[in-house]
Each structure stands twice: as structure tokens, then as C-alpha cells.
Amino acid sequence: MNFSIPDHKAIRKAFAEGEEAVVALFDSVTAQVEELAVQLEKQAGMLKDLQARLSKNSRNSGKPPSSDGYNKPNRTESLRKSGQKPNGGQPGHKGHTLERSENPDHTETYKPEECAECGMSLEDVVAVGEEERQVYDIPAIRIEVTAHRAEIKICPGCGTENRGEFPENVERGVRYGIGIKTWATYFGNQHHIPLERTVQVIEDLTGHRISEGSLLKASEELSECVRPSNEVTAELLRHAEILNADETGLRVKGKLHWLHVASSGLLTHYNVHEKRGKKRWMQPESSANSKERCCMITGSRTSYIQTAVMDCATRTTFAS
Q1: Nearest-angstrom CA–CA distance, 224 and 219
Q2: Contact of 284 with 270, CB cutoff 8 Å
Q3: DSSP strand pairing (152-154 vs 161-163)
Q4: Residue 259: how many CB atoms within 10 A of its CB?
Q5: pLDDT for residue 162
Q6: CB atoms within 10 A of CB 241
Q7: pLDDT at 166
Q8: How far is the C-alpha of 185 from the C-alpha of 223, rounded, in Å?
Q9: Alpha-carbon distance values, 105 to 6, 101, 132, 133, 135 (Å)
Q10: How much is the pLDDT for 101?
Q11: Closest to 282 in 3D by CA, of 320, 318, 240, 248
């Protein structure tokens, strides 16, 4: 649009011609301003559309994450303001360093065989000193298989067949021991590692692949060990003078269940149940033949045992 503004000469001419000429001059200017306003409004709408396109990303539109490129927005943004202190340890902070061990588990000695200057043999020369360096490391981890054999003997007096007794934790056939069961429950429950990845972690570390079914069975077996503690905790909470209780929904095998929590100043009891009733947690624990499974956390030294297949799960926290 070519916007024409009347100069002084045109204004004086219209003034000299009279009122009608002045009005006509202003009408022409008004028409140009109105046309300009329409064009500006149209351009503002186009600019708004372009800005909206540029601001779209995978979080506020249907665009795929790959289209974000280097302008990918942060998932979270901290509300904290930058402090005045420099990064790293602050003045007065007690540092921690790897201390030299006075009683190392192993000692490796390296003897010089010959003189580096003249080549003379040093095999029979007595050392006058030592330079020691220490390395902290984890030894190679591998599965050890122990064969437990109970001897069978015939009594020479009466002919009775006698067998040696196996330890209580050595069951019939081939079974996993306490160590690998502890790993299975620790990875899966304390660190919430899925079954498939737990299998992979154990195989990567030991070279032995354990089945997911064995992981589940280990959790179920160990969960029974803490059932008495859970029952005692629930009983103590039932008689607590001051009790905090709440519940929240969660899914178990795709169905809605409820996580009930009850706590006092010393004890906390979690119980997952299909009912929302506020007194559900106060009901006695199920019998040993039920499908209920449980776990426990004890102070800062954690003994965390939890079933992977939960029809009902319980977690008990003892204050230190």
C-alpha cells in the first residue's frame, strides 16, 4: 500500500478552496488509515500463526520428539535460584579419601631382577626398602556349585541302613543357595529393577543365567521370614494411642487395589488390599496358607524382602 500524506501546499490549497475541500482532504487520509489498519490486523494474525508454529514441540502438540532437534525443552526446570557459594566442597567441609589399609587381604611383591644401569643380577641381593601402593577392587564374581553328599552306612551289628543328615537349607535335587536368593530380592525390591533386567544383571556379573520364575520363588520364600514381625507390628499399631492412617489407589495385575498406611511415632505399616475400607489394615494377617506376601525395612540397615507377584503386600518400617 502506498500511503499518501498531504503536504503543506495541499493543505493550504484545500483551506483556500473552502470547507468542502478540507473535508475531502481529511476523508482521503482517513480512508488510507483505515485500509492500513486492516492490513496491520491481517499481518498480526499471520505473525501470531507463525509464532504458534515455531513454539510447537513434542510436549504441546502431536509432533514426534525427534522433530525437537537441538531445541528440545527440559523435562523439569528447577525453581531454585543460583546461590552465591562456589561449586564443590565448601570451607570447613570434612573431606573423605581412600585410606590406606593396615591389613591388606593380599600382598604382591615385585623384585628387580637386574640392575637398570649395568645389568648385574640382583637375585641374591637383600632389599633395603619398599615402596607400597594399594588398590581397592572387587574380586571376580562367579557361581560356585557345592555338592552335598550324605553317606549311607550299614550297621554291622543289626544291619540297619543309616544315612547322614543334610543341612536344613539343602533341599532335595538342585536348588539355589542363600546368596543368589539375596541378590534376587535385593535387586528387584530395594532398587526396583524389573525381573528381566535382574536376570541380565546376575548373568552379566556371574556368567550364570537364572530364570524369572526362580526370582519370584526366592521372593516368596523369603517374604515368609518376616511375617511374624509384620504381625507384631500390626498388633502394636492397633493399640497405639495416636495413629496416622491413609490410603491411595494402585494397580495390581491390572485391577484397582488400595495401599493402606498406618503409622505411629515408631512404626509404619503398609498393606495392599482390594478393599478401600479404612479398617482393612487392622485385620489380622492372613494365615500361612494364604497368597498374601510381605516385606520389611529395618532402620537404616535395610533388610528388604518383597514378593514380585502380589495378591497382597505388606511393608513394615522400624524406626532406628
Answers
A1: 9
A2: no
A3: antiparallel
A4: 17
A5: 94
A6: 6
A7: 92
A8: 10
A9: 100, 9, 14, 14, 11
A10: 92
A11: 240
Q: Which three cell numbers stand for residue 105?
A: 587381604
pLDDT at 211: 93
CA distance 138 to 317: 31
With beta carbons less than 8 A apart as the criterion, state whether 42 and 7 touch: no
Give Cα 207 to chain centroid, integer Å.
Answer: 25
Distance between CA 44 and CA 183 in Å, rounded? 64
Cell, residue 228: 511374624
Look at the block and give the residue holding cell 492372613: 286
Percentages helix, strand, coil for the chain (3-state, rounded to 5) are 35, 15, 55
Distance CA 4, CA 266 (A): 86
Give which of 219, 208, 217 is closest to 185, Cα–Cα: 219
Cβ–Cβ under 8 Å, residues 270 and 292: no
Cell numbers placing 290: 494364604
pLDDT of res. 290: 34
Contact 226, 316 (CB under 8 A): yes
Cα(250)–Cα(64) distance, integer angstroms: 30
- How far apart (Å, rounded) are the C-alpha atoms in residues 317 and 266? 8
Asked if residue 258 lies in contact with residue 277, where contact means CB atoms within 8 angstroms, the answer is no
**Residue spans of the chain under pLDDT 70:** 1, 71-77, 278-320
